[in-house]
Structure formats: C-alpha cells, structure tokens
Design brief:
Strand order of the largest sheet: 11-10-9-12-13-14-15
Strand content: 25-35%
Bound molecules: ribose-5-phosphate
Shape: globular
CATH architecture of the largest domain: 3-Layer(aba) Sandwich
Number of strands: 15
Mean pLDDT: 95
Helix content: 25-40%
Number of domains: 2
CATH class of the largest domain: Alpha Beta
Order of helices and strands: EHEEEEHEHEHEHEHEEEHEHEEH
Structural class: alpha/beta
Radius of gyration: 20 Å
Low-confidence stretches: none
Distance between the termini: 13 Å
Oligomer: single chain
CATH topology of the largest domain: Rossmann fold
Length: 294
Amino acid sequence: MLVVAGPSSVTLAEKTAELLGCSLVKVDFKRFPDGESYVRLAREVKGEKVAIIQSTYPPQDSHLLQLFLLVDASLRHGASEVTAVVPYLAYARQDKVFLPYEPVSVEVVLKTLKCLGVKRLLTVNVHSPEALKRVELECFDLSALSLLAEFFAGEGLKGAVAFAPDRKAARLAEEASRILGGGLGWFAKQRDRVTGEVTSELEQGEVEGRKVILFDDIISSGGTMKLAARKLLEAGASEVYAACVHSLMSEENYRRLLEAGIRRVVSTDTIPTFTSRVSVASLLADGLRKFLEG
Ligand code: R5P
C-alpha cells in the first residue's frame, strides 16, 4: 500500500505511513494565481493500492477539491484501488433536510467520492454515522475517543466523570468513561435551527465535588462546551476539562472557554491546530491495516 500525503494532512500522513511501514507519496501542490489548486503525485502509483490522507477542515471547499483531484490522479495513472482517508469529513453536519429546500451536503460529498471511483472511505468520528449508510460506498467511521480519554488518564485524570454536552455525544462520553472509570453523564441540548440559540439541561450524572471532562465530536464556536461547563460548575463540579475530536475553534473562542472556567481544551490532529495534543495516526494505521490488508 502507498500512502499519499494530501496537502492538508502531510504530517499525519507521514506518521501513519511510518507506523504502517509503507512508502509515502508526496504531493506537489501549488495554487494558481486565480486561487485554483494544482496537485501532482510525486511518483508512480501504477498497480498499487493507494490510501490518500486528506482532512477537509477549513478551507473545506479547497481541501475537498484537492482530495477529488488526488483521487483522479491516482486512478488515472493506474492505482489498483483508492481509499480516501478523510479524518475530518467536511459538510457532515448537514446530514438531513432541516429546513425546506435544503440539500443534504454529506450525501453530495460521499456520492462525489463514489463517482470518482473511490473504493472506500475511512473517517474519524463523523458527525452522523447513520448518514454514511445512505450512500453505496464502503465507509468506516473510526473513533478517537479512547485516545482522548487515555491522554487525560495520563494527565492524572483517571476517575474523572466523562460527560457529554448533548444526548448525541453520550455515546462518545460512554467510550471515554470505559477508560476513565469515573462514571458518565450528559445534557439534553436544543439548538434553534433559525437563530442558532442553544439551551441545555443536565439530564444524567452526578458531578458535585467531581472532576469532569466534557467530550464532543466537534468544537466550533465553543458555545456548546461553554454552556455545558457553566452548568457543570453551577452543579458543583470541582474542575471541568473539554475534549473534542475535531477542533474548528478560533483562538478567541478558545480564550472564552478558559474564561468560562474550563481548565484545558484538548483535540486531536484530524484538524492540526493549537489544541491538537492527540494524534490519530495509530487509529488510521490500524484502520488501514484492518480494512485493506485484512
Ligand atoms: C453538534 O451536534 C456537534 O456535536 C457539536 O456539539 C457542535 O457542532 C459544536 O458546535 P459549537 O462549538 O459551535 O457549539
């Protein structure tokens, strides 16, 4: 197998290829003066199984297009099959029609990959795993929750309560709680689709005098975590931490989380950013081994 280092995930691809003990295909990448992307594989891929690692964090549209171009380049030049490894899958949050006349963005992305000839997709904690089943493409959703929980356990937080800011994230907190061993809790959260206003109520879990780690798939504006942290502190939590797989947070929003009383915010390198403390390289390597070579 060859690992292609997509322009958005060069370091992650290097780490993954090293763990797999397979060759890395570098990509010549440049931007044309009008903003369009140019990519070229730096070596032959004929007859090879190719795994393209390209996360689609902002600028999502450019990163997606670069992925599409790399799939075309690989298959056009003889790769025997292509696996798209997209640690952060853009457009996954629009996984249904919320308001009349909207598209379902995640389906558009998956159908495009299928159309281009991708054999399978590996992603990490996609927002809606159910959406992956609606398109005829082999999709595997890997979870980085154990890696995040192990990070906190290594920082002396074994025994902390794993908490989810909403019911949907409860399954993520549950995974983390298996490693942390300090119990589980979650909020019932509601978001107004038009105004975006978020409200939430603690639905399950005891936090008085306890250290609590909030787990979610994404932090973007930080509004969800901020609200949950405030409620946990009001309910008597002694310390609150936050972890997410994909951090889309600006430094300003990060500062607001610290001001709200969150002691530390940690994310993975699906999106390489200032909170990335946990690498998903081992997760991708294991996934590629399992699904390609198994
Ligand atoms: C929503 O369902 C997601 O799981 C996250 O809770 C949400 O995307 C976080 O967004 P924000 O940080 O803007 O509140």
